[in-house]
Design brief:
- InterPro entries: Amino_oxidase (IPR002937), CrtISO-like (IPR045892), FAD/NAD-bd_sf (IPR036188).
- GO terms for molecular function: oxidoreductase activity.
- This protein has helices spanning 37-41, 62-73, 120-127, 157-165, 170-181, 185-189, 202-229, 236-242, 248-262, 271-281, 296-308, 352-358, 366-373, 459-480, 497-503, 545-558, 562-571, and strands spanning 5-7, 12-13, 34-35, 52-58, 78-81, 93-96, 99-102, 134-137, 139-144, 147-152, 286-291, 312-314, 319-325, 328-334, 339-348, 380-389, 400-404, 417-421, 435-446, 491-495, 532-534.
- The chain has 574 residues and is an alpha+beta fold.
- Strands 4, 5, 12, 13, 14, 15 and 21 form a seven-stranded mixed β-sheet that branches. Strands 10-9-17-18-19-16-20 form a seven-stranded mixed β-sheet.
- Residues 1-40 have low confidence and may be disordered.
Length: 574
């Protein structure tokens, strides 16, 4: 569900629009598979060069690649070890029968943004001297109990939808909401994520460096805005309630946006995240971006950047455990027994639960273990990947569609919300001529419990896949219209929570930590074990493409000196 929403030359926000999604359990007719260009950019041979590095990064998700890229840019000897045969983690692409599928994120923007308010991923790419060609668009289709409509981003378009589908006071309430939160957006965006580091050096690279812009932002927002800014680290529902927002359609819509953004409703998401998103979605000139050649193009760009500055990536290099000597992380042991030494640090881009499983139990303080084991998890996903003929499909089909079956069940209820992406409408090279690729999924709402312990080869598993995927098939049929025939699809792939667990090495197939604003905070990047750090969706700032990119950058910054960090900020103009 990862997405980003932003305006031209501005920052982007991360709606969790398309989620983690792995290589799938293929039927016999779809067993032949090729991988995207990103796989060929990295070494599939045994660890390239010496089996040692200054920093060893476990996992090549967006967070791990951003961390490794910046470390290489800083001149560190960095080695990324990836268990899969393709780089990218949840954001990798894969090919079947000439169809190139996004396995995860596919709603983006902000790749062309520059400066202090740029998307964290864009800032990392800028530091690596890489760019991503994109196609721009500004809308997505929405199917809700009240009806269906084309939702356009921008400052005025949503008022038209409110007039048709919401109550008589909805336009007034929406305007009241915008008037209250847009003035405090400057405070939410004033500190560039790339300026953050995990030590006291942040006083130099962030606090002192950007103090003037922060003070200017507070001065411009006035007393009311300054008061609102104090709520940025509180649940967004508190702002909604304080403004007296009561229209059911608006409250449902806000819950939906919050859930897509962070996997929780408005009572669990930080106000800062929602304010940040509003400031980007409802400004003049906003647009969404889709990378030409698919989300794999993002991975390719990061891999190129790593290798350009001397970093290494080794695929099919499964880390069996993290080696701890004299209380310090000194490297990793690969499946097969090879030891890879880390002279300065090991960085885990795995989830907190999977990182814990890599550590020797005697090296882990009980309080740290208990904290991880008691952290609530987001649910998992069902996925449907299709390749089909475009004949009979509307020529003006949009790339993104969202289906909500029942507001009363809650947008976090299982089998209730389906998200659909048809990226070949913007990047035709993702499918053979005259064909389309499609990815549908239930966004982090599929319970792992009903799948746990099933044999993937059993009829029970196959029958459950058919049963639990039906809601996605029906949503696809609604979005694509009568010209679509599921029986004529050339590629049909269904992914389950067990697919997540197996291919993405995700504990219980989870999307990540379900940490509610006001009741907990995402962990930092250091650990009780010296020389072991973590990045990715189990760490601050949390879940989503920009968030994990920022986490990778924070770890990289923390492993170099303040002067090196400051020189990089100068070099990229922030």
């Amino acid at each position: 569900m990862v997405s980003q929403i932003s305006c031209k030359n501005s920052n982007s926000m991360a709606l969790r629009f398309l989620p983690f999604s792995p290589l799938f359990n293929f039927s016999s007719s779809n067993r032949k598979r090729t991988v995207s260009t990103s796989a060929t950019l990295a070494s599939k041979q045994p660890v390239p060069g010496k089996p040692e590095a200054d920093i060893v990064v476990i996992g090549s998700g967006i967070g791990g690649l951003c961390c490794a890229g910046l470390l290489a840019r800083y001149g560190q000897d960095v080695l990324v070890l990836e268990s899969h045969d393709v780089a990218g983690g949840a954001a990798h692409s894969f090919d079947i029968k000439g169809y190139k599928f996004d396995s995860g994120p596919s709603l983006f923007s902000g790749f062309q943004s520059r400066g202090p308010q740029a998307n964290p991923l864009a800032q990392v790419l800028d530091a690596l001297g890489e760019s991503i060609p994109c196609v721009n668009y500004d809308s997505w289709m929405v199917y809700v109990p009240e009806g269906e409509f084309l939702s356009r981003i921008g400052p005025t378009e949503f008022f038209k939808d409110l007039e048709k589908y919401a109550g008589p006071d909805s336009a007034r309430e929406w305007r009241k909401l915008l008037d209250a939160i847009l003035p405090i957006s400057a405070a939410a965006m004033a500190l560039p994520p790339l300026s953050i580091r995990g030590d006291l050096g942040v006083l130099s690279t962030a606090a002192a460096r950007y103090a003037p812009s922060l003070l200017k932002s507070f001065a411009q927002m006035g007393p009311q805005g300054a008061l609102g800014a104090t709520k940025l680290l509180r649940p967004f529902s508190e702002i909604i309630d304080s403004l007296g927002i009561k229209d059911p359609f608006i409250r449902n819509w806000l819950d939906l946006l919050a859930f897509l953004l962070a996997g929780v409703k408005t009572n669990g998401i930080l106000s800062a995240e929602m304010v940040y998103m509003f400031s980007e979605w409802y400004k003049p000139g906003c647009s969404l971006e889709y990378p030409l050649h698919g989300s794999g193009a993002i991975v390719d760009a990061l891999v190129r950047g790593i290798q350009k500055f001397g970093g290494r990536i080794s695929l099919k290099s499964h880390v069996e455990n993290i080696v701890v000597e004299k209380g310090r992380a000194v490297g990793v042991k690969l499946r097969g027994g090879q030891f890879v030494r880390a002279r300065k640090a090991v960085v885990s881009n795995a989830s907190m639960w999977d990182t814990l499983s890599l550590l020797p139990p005697e090296a882990v303080p009980k309080s740290y273990q208990d904290g991880i084991e008691t952290t609530q998890q987001c649910e998992s996903f069902m996925h449907l990947h299709l390749g089909f003929d475009a004949e009979g499909i509307s020529d003006d089909l949009g790339i993104h569609h969202i289906v909500v079956n029942d507001w009363d069940r809650g947008i976090d209820a299982d089998q209730n919300v389906v998200l659909i992406s048809v990226p070949s409408v913007l990047s035709p090279d993702l499918a053979p001529p005259g064909k389309h690729v499609l990815h549908a999924y239930t966004p982090g709402t599929e319970p792992f419990e009903i799948w746990e312990g099933l044999d993937r080869r059993s009829n029970e598993y196959k029958n459950l896949k058919a049963e639990r995927s039906e809601v996605m098939w029906k949503a696809v049929e609604k979005a694509l219209g009568p010209g679509f025939n599921r029986e004529k699809c050339e590629v049909k792939l269904v992914g389950t929570p067990l697919t997540h667990q197996r291919f993405l090495r995700r504990n219980r197939g989870t999307y990540g930590p379900a940490i509610l604003a006001g009741k907990g905070t995402f962990p930092g990047h250091s650990t009780p074990i010296p020389q072991l750090m973590c990045c990715g969706d189990s760490t601050f700032p949390g879940i989503g493409v920009p968030a994990v990119a920022a986490s990778g950058a924070i770890v990289a910054n923390s492993l170099v000196s303040v002067s090196e960090h400051s020189r990089l900020l100068d070099a990229i103009g922030i």
